[in-house]
Write a structure and sequence with these properties.
Length: about 1500
């Protein structure tokens, strides 16, 4: 039997293979499992056995010896004989073998000794490793001085047993690489610990330290870093020299992209910037990295439409004038030390608001091709039409470069996306644009094309370049080779290069030879086969070998030929072209094939489709989308996309869409493809990302409790498993903690050794598999916690993030300390800052906090500290940064009542959702998943929580969080008032009551009928009701009419004759399906009496209106001229109807008889005052009856009229005018009308003035005045008049001070002196006739009474000659009062003009008398009146001076009134009279003055003798001053 012998060296090797293979196989199994790890010792043993058999070599087998036979004896003997013969030789060999054996033994022993020594040396090293040793720095940190914006590297080497943990500090504060991404980098390679600081700034100057720690002690190494700034860079150079910067190529920089631009959306006409931040090492301002931008893989260059900038740690691309041409995939490519760093994202540009509703979008990609001296072919891409009418054509516009005027090139829209523009000027530059047309209007213009210059392309072909010796270029024109040519040759190769429905483009080759003279072409056409040639371009000189022909008939074939023409003549005709016929432009491609949409991200869908069967010069595709359930399609792209797959972005998460595609070419858009299958916007399934934020929550010396944060990306499926690995910080091998998946994010790891540092890593799993492991945690020392304060809170999360607020939530610490946790403190800091601010000064007992007062758009971090009776515990791990900005489309929780069931509910419509999302409802942030008081239902993106039995126990703050989203959440506080309101509504829904807009009410109708009615909000045709009056049902019949109207919801009952018997209670009972309603009206007592009185009144009114009657009773109005009108309106009148006015039963006959046929009558009351009080009455009568209307003008009515007059007067009141009189200074205010009944107040220095001898107040019909008698300095100051109309006070002011007062006072003194002189001057009081006729020989006595103070002198004149006293003519003057002229026995010679002159020192009067003497028997001569003449006064007064200069104080003059006469006691002196003025012609006292903008008031003139002063009317009388 064979046996196997295995050498010792093979055993060892197999054992090693078995171990390694088992380890790798175990890890392979862990990575492949989806739910939980399955591992058993049996399977491992089997694997080890298989590995042993596979790796072990075959064993050596010892053979079994057989017995010898007789036949073999001879052979044996022969063998012995031979052996004897060679014995001697064998002895020699044996001796040699013995010698060699001894030598080999000695060598083996030597090797064994060496091996033993090596083994013992190895065991000595292991024993030394097991000896505890505190950390010790073999290589310490050294100081560095560097320039700003350059990197620095600090490194050290440390030893210790166990292996020390090294932490870095700056100025005593820990260095956190995550606080400033890209700033710090901490490495540990081969026992060398390093800290790399990139982009050093001056603030990095500090003392840095490396602290090495193990369980036996701590060692520290420190070094200073000084960062210098070159001179001229904002600070003085501390080293005094500027370093020489060696040449660094931008591609040698280390560049790491940080914040990258995402998919962007813009609108035509707007602007957008794509920004990508980066970290550059070294960051040198004069050497920025090389960045290139691409759109759809085409390199972009800076221009007016594209702005690029690199610097400041960012690369920026700005598109200031967006158009759909800018849509596409943008790529940023930056050259780095290791190659290139790239990032790409799509930019969508949608159509701007169209110029007319329904107009198409603008075309795009306008370019010019086939450029010639007077011809250009313009091409473009068609816009997408989704809900608009199909495009019927395009207009092409051009403008010359440098001009702003666009010229339309085509009169009729062209139907294809090409158009040949001819008629250009050679050498001029042009831009082109295109507008689309449909039935709704014309689109916005496209972006203009690049500038093109009209040049002859054939000219360049006529140049030949010859190189000589490889250095010189000689240019030769074809003209030099052709010789002298006059008439050019004929063109060749005439053909149609573009054939469309609307036009054909002819092309040909220029002639050869062509000559030096300028060349043009003439084209002829004919119908194919006829030979009848017709010239086309007779009015245009064509210089280009291209020409578009538009006026071809459909269905006809044409041939063309071309002539070359110059100044010398024309060539022969070219050969005719092939027959050309316009073709139908049904050249659109066929519809794309099947469209398939698949999941991509939470806001995008991947769409792909099959190419159309007939491509036909395909430009690209348009993709449209539609929400399932909606009829409106929306464009997914706005520029044709060339590939058969497209990612549609900007979709609503969780919404369901369908998609379709259209192909586009120069002829337009194809038919739409079939719709894709509906697809919900969800992320594609993948394994979750790595968990992060591993932290220790508790430790008892033998176990540690750790927690971690959820993966940032769940992979489109719920994370349902976590696997934890742990290792000793001194080893590299990881050990599995759990074979069965952990569902919570907290795990207690047992079996640890106290004092050892451990590291942990976590993997997350979902239905797609197990994701990548997290980064190893920081080393955690297994040391029992014995502190009295609580441990850290953990699992900080955020909810209800809005622009200025959010809610922080956390979980209670696992380690509570020496006493129970009593509360929590929450700290907050801005991202990147280490200065935390405590938000709540008093600890909160619950595990959430509402944070408000945030800055919108700012990013914050938070931490939580637990508090117990022994103090404040260690802070939690800092939360992830959170930006204070609400998600787009965020909704709030709505509290409402179901209109059908009456259930009270809270609901939320999520702005985004995915397939794995769940709505988690909480009350006061405690989950209520299984609460019997509420039931949660979810449908689509809306979740509803319905209260089963709502009461006060349900009050509180409710919140909901949508899982697997970017933080969709909301909250709502249910208050008692809101709950009571909803309970009432719920009761109304569950116990329906017919809602009433109006309860039972009544109204009095014409004829005295009474209508009882109510109005319901809604009635159905099956409604039933009944009226109950005093407990008796009333039905429709005689005297009652009952009806209803379903449309308006009105139910009514009309009582024809309403009497005392109708007093009582009225009730209406309504039944409409299950709903009921009842409304009652109590009509008794005073309420009933009022209704009965009104009904009787309406009954009488109806009877009254059968005849002539007043439709509107008397009322008053005030006209603009302040006339009070008593007006009324009449109805049902005829010509025979009479109308009369009465006042106090006395009839008033107005000047204009009332016209009843006009429907209105009015009685004017001019100059209204208190005397007009009384009862006015109007009567209207004819054979049908009589009606009367009375109006009592007294009491409040009188006050209302006066207020109305005051309102008109106050509005029209002029500014105060000053007028001087002999009595003093008068202030006057002119207005439309004034009466003393108005509420008028005069004020001096804000003090009310009462009428007195000093201050007289009065007025006329057109003005109010206030006179200051005998003014003094006390009367200086500010004066005002206030006119009140009961609502508003109208005020006018005048400042009587300064120079105005001085001038007024001087004028007053002058007028006072003039009045005194006028009063005391000499004058003839009476007695003299104007004409005397006397018979000859009679005696004539002319006697008069004179007056004057002092006594005047009297002189008589005849024919201007003084008369002396004689016997014939005797002059007497008795007592200073009576003067006579007596002529005895008059003769004809005594006839003449006599006069008397009476005067004293103040003046006098000159009166004339005509005396005629006739003889006896003669006819008495006709009398000739003489005129009194004023004698020249002894002293001439100074002409009057106006106290108020017109330039300073404009004085309005009344338009109607006369200047008021002064009181009788103070006669006003007249103006300076002229000596020749006659007494009869003197100006009356009251002379109307025409209205003038700036009149100068005059003193009233006294009435002369013989002329009676007119009596002023009633309204002009001044009030009598009060007596002393």
């Amino acid at each position: 039997m064979a046996s196997k012998v295995i050498p010792w060296y093979k055993k060892k090797r197999v054992s090693q293979v078995k171990t390694d293979y088992a380890y790798h196989h175990t890890k392979h199994v862990v990575q492949q499992q989806t739910g939980s790890r399955k591992s058993s010792s049996k399977s491992v043993s089997q694997v080890q056995a298989q590995a042993t058999e596979a790796m072990a070599e075959p064993a050596y087998t010892v053979p079994v010896f057989r017995q010898r036979s007789s036949e073999e004896t001879e052979e044996t003997e022969e063998y012995q004989r031979v052996t004897t013969n060679v014995g001697k030789g064998l002895a020699v060999i044996q001796e040699e073998l013995h010698r060699m054996r001894i030598a080999t033994k000695a060598q083996v022993e030597s090797l064994e000794i060496q091996r033993e020594v090596r083994g013992r040396m190895m065991r000595r090293g292991e024993m030394l490793d097991e000896i505890p040793k505190m950390p010790d720095f073999l290589v310490a940190l050294r100081p560095h001085t560097v320039w700003e914006k350059t990197p620095v590297k600090l490194f050290c080497t440390v030893q210790g047993n166990p292996r020390p943990i090294v932490k870095w500090y700056k100025g005593g504060a820990p260095v956190d690489p995550l606080s400033v991404p890209g700033k710090y980098k901490i490495e540990n390679k081969y026992g060398v610990h390093s800290l790399i600081i990139s982009r050093c700034v001056v603030s990095d100057t500090a003392e840095y330290s490396a602290v090495a720690t193990n369980q036996h002690g701590t060692a520290t190494s420190k070094a200073s870093v000084t960062v210098k700034r070159p001179s001229g860079a904002g600070a003085s150079c501390q080293l005094g020299i500027v370093p020489h910067l060696t040449g660094i190529h931008p591609s040698k920089l280390e560049v790491s992209l940080l914040d990258r631009f995402s998919v962007s959306f813009g609108v035509e006409g707007g602007s957008i910037s794509l920004v990508c931040t980066m970290v550059v090492v070294p960051d040198l301002p004069n050497i920025p990295p090389v960045a290139q931008w691409y759109r759809d893989d085409k390199l972009l260059k800076p221009s007016k439409l594209v702005e690029m900038a690199v610097g400041g740690s960012a690369a920026r691309l700005t598109l200031p004038h967006l158009a759909k041409d800018d849509e596409g995939l943008y790529t940023l490519r930056i050259f780095t030390k290791d190659g290139t760093a790239e990032h790409s994202a799509y930019l969508f540009v949608s159509d701007a608001t169209p110029s007319a509703a329904g107009a198409p979008g603008a075309p795009m990609s306008v370019k010019a091709y086939d450029i010639n001296s007077d011809y250009v072919l313009v091409a473009w891409k068609p816009p997408n039409t989704v809900n608009e009418a199909p495009i019927t054509g395009y207009f092409v516009d051009r403008r010359e470069s440098g001009s702003e005027t666009w010229v339309q090139c085509n009169d009729a829209p062209v139907k294809v996306c090409k158009y040949p523009v001819h008629g250009l000027s050679t050498g001029h530059s042009y831009h082109f644009r295109v507008r689309a047309v449909n039935s709704a209007g014309i689109s916005r213009a496209s972006r203009q094309s690049d500038k093109v210059t009209a040049l002859d392309a054939a000219e360049s072909e006529r140049l030949q370049v010859i190189k000589i010796e490889g250095k010189y270029d000689i240019v030769i024109r074809d003209d030099d080779l052709e010789g002298y040519v006059t008439i050019p040759g004929e063109p060749t190769d005439v053909h149609a290069s573009e054939i469309f429905k609307s036009y054909v483009v002819l092309s040909w080759k220029p002639p050869s030879p062509r000559g030096r003279a300028p060349l043009w072409y003439v084209i002829e056409k004919c119908i194919a086969g006829t030979g009848a040639w017709q010239r086309i371009n007779s009015s245009v000189k064509l210089h280009s070998p291209r020409y578009p022909v538009f006026d071809l008939q459909d269905g006809q074939k044409y041939q063309f030929r071309v002539y070359s023409v110059n100044m010398h003549g024309s060539s022969e005709a070219s050969a005719p072209s092939e027959p050309v016929q316009k073709v139908d432009q049904d050249g659109v491609p066929s519809a794309p094939g099947q469209v398939v949409a698949t999941r991509n991200t939470k806001s995008s869908v991947f769409v792909q489709w099959d190419s159309p069967k007939h491509m036909k010069s395909l430009m690209g595709y348009y993709i449209d989308g539609r929400v399932v359930g909606s009829k409106e399609w929306f464009p997914c792209n706005h520029k044709p996309f060339k590939r058969n797959r497209f990612v549609v972005h900007g979709l609503i998460p969780g919404e369901t869409y369908v998609f379709r595609a259209q192909a586009a070419n120069m002829f337009g858009l194809s038919e739409e493809s079939q719709e894709s299958s509906p697809i919900a916007v969800e992320p594609a399934l993948a394994t979750p990302s790595a968990p992060f934020g591993i932290t220790m929550l508790s430790c008892d010396g033998a176990s540690m409790t750790v927690a971690w944060k959820s993966p940032k990306h769940c992979g489109g499926s719920k994370v349902n498993a976590y696997y934890i690995d742990q290792r000793n910080a001194d080893t590299l091998a990881w050990k599995e903690v759990n074979l069965v998946a952990v569902t919570e994010r907290v795990c207690t790891v047992d079996g640890l050794t106290e004092g050892i540092f451990y590291e942990f890593k976590v993997q997350a799993g979902n239905m797609a598999g197990v994701g990548v492991p997290s980064a190893p945690s920081a080393p955690m020392k297994c040391e029992a916690w014995t502190m009295e304060e609580p441990g850290p809170a953990y699992d900080l999360s955020f909810s209800e993030v809005r622009g200025h607020s959010l809610v922080v939530l956390w979980k209670a610490p696992v380690y509570t300390g020496a006493s129970a946790v009593s509360g929590y403190l929450v700290d907050m800091a801005k991202k990147g800052s280490s200065e935390f601010v405590t938000l709540n000064q008093e600890a909160v007992s619950h595990r959430y906090l509402q944070v408000s007062g945030l800055e919108e758009g700012e990013t914050y971090v938070f931490r939580v500290r637990a508090v117990n009776a022994n103090g404040v515990g260690k802070p939690s791990q800092v939360s992830e940064p959170v930006c204070a900005r609400a998600l787009p489309g965020t909704q709030e929780i709505v509290a409402s009542v179901d209109g059908d069931t009456g259930d009270i509910f809270l609901s939320l419509e999520a702005c985004e959702i995915c397939e794995t999302s769940k709505f988690v409802w909480s009350k006061n942030y405690k989950s209520i998943a299984d609460c019997p008081r509420a039931e949660v239902t979810t449908k689509g993106r809306t979740s509803r929580m319905t209260f089963t039995h709502p009461d006060k126990d349900d009050l509180g703050k409710y919140s909901v969080v949508v899982t697997d989203t970017d933080g969709v959440s909301a909250s709502h506080t249910l208050t008692e008032d809101a709950l009571n309101t909803m309970l009432e509504l719920s009761h109304a829904i569950r116990h329906p009551v017919i809602p009433l807009k109006h309860g039972l009410n009544y109204e009095i109708l014409e004829k005295g009928h009474v209508r009882f009615w109510l109005q319901a909000v809604k009635l159905s045709p099956s409604v039933s009701y009944r009226f109950i009056v005093n407990d008796k049902e009333v039905t429709s019949g005689e005297g009652h009419k009952i009806s209803h109207d379903v449309a308006t919801g009105i139910i009514q009952m009309t009582v024809d004759l309403f009497t005392r018997a109708n007093e009582g209670t009225y009730t209406v009972q309504i039944h409409d399906g299950k709903a009921k309603a009842q409304s009652s009206l109590v009509l008794v007592g005073d309420v009933f009496k009022a209704a009965l009185k009104e009904a009787e009144f309406q009954r009488k009114e109806h009877i009254r209106k059968q005849g002539p009657h007043f439709s509107e009773y008397l009322y008053f109005t005030v006209t603009e001229d302040c006339t009070v009108l008593l007006a009324c309106k009449v109805a049902n009148v005829k010509k025979e109807t009479t109308f009369h006015w009465y006042r106090e039963e006395e009839e008033i006959v107005p000047e204009t008889p009332p016209n009843v046929m006009s429907g209105a009558c009015a009685l004017p009351i001019p100059l209204f005052s208190r005397k007009d009080q009384g009862v006015f009455k109007a009567t209207l009568s004819d054979d049908r009856g009589k009606d009367t209307s009375a109006f009592d003008i007294s009491g409040q009515v009188f006050d209302d009229i006066i207020n109305a007059l005051a309102q008109n007067a106050g509005a029209s009141a002029s500014e105060l005018v000053m007028q001087c009189t002999p009595e003093g200074i008068r202030l006057q205010c002119y207005m439309n009308y004034y009466t003393e009944e108005m509420k008028t107040v005069w004020k001096h220095k804000e003090t009310k003035i009462a009428s007195s001898e000093k201050m007289r107040i009065g007025g006329t019909a057109e003005m109010a005045w206030m006179q200051i008698c005998d003014p003094s300095d006390k009367e200086k100051g500010h004066y005002s008049i206030e006119i009140s109309d009961g609502v508003k006070t109208h005020s006018r002011t005048f400042d009587l001070s300064g120079q105005a007062y001085t001038d007024a006072y001087e004028e007053y003194l002058r007028l006072k002196a003039a009045a005194f002189a006028e009063k005391n001057r000499g004058r003839v009081v009476g007695g003299l006739p104007d004409v005397v006729t006397i018979m000859e020989h009679k005696s004539l006595s002319l006697t008069c009474t004179v007056w004057g103070e002092p006594t005047p002198e009297v002189t008589w004149f005849k024919n201007e000659q003084e008369v002396t006293s004689t016997e014939h003519t005797k002059v007497t003057f008795d007592g200073g009062k009576f003067s006579s002229l007596v002529i005895n026995k008059v003769t004809p010679e005594d006839s003449g003009k006599y006069s008397i002159n009476v005067r004293n020192k103040y003046g006098g009067e000159f009166v004339e008398i005509t005396v005629s003497v006739y003889k006896h028997g003669e006819q008495i001569p006709e009398a000739k009146l003489g005129q009194a003449k004023m004698a020249t006064p002894a002293t001439t007064p100074v002409p009057p001076k106006s106290p108020a200069l017109p330039s300073k104080t404009p004085t309005p003059t009344p338009s109607k009134s006369q200047t008021p006469a002064p009181p009788a006691k103070t006669p006003t002196p007249a103006s300076t009279p002229a000596p020749s003025m006659k007494s009869q012609a003197s100006t009356p006292a009251s002379t109307p003055v025409p209205k003038s903008p700036t009149p100068t008031p005059k003193s009233p003139t006294p009435t002369p003798r013989g002329v009676k002063s007119p009596t002023p009317p009633r309204f002009m009388k001044s009030p009598t001053p009060p007596r002393k």
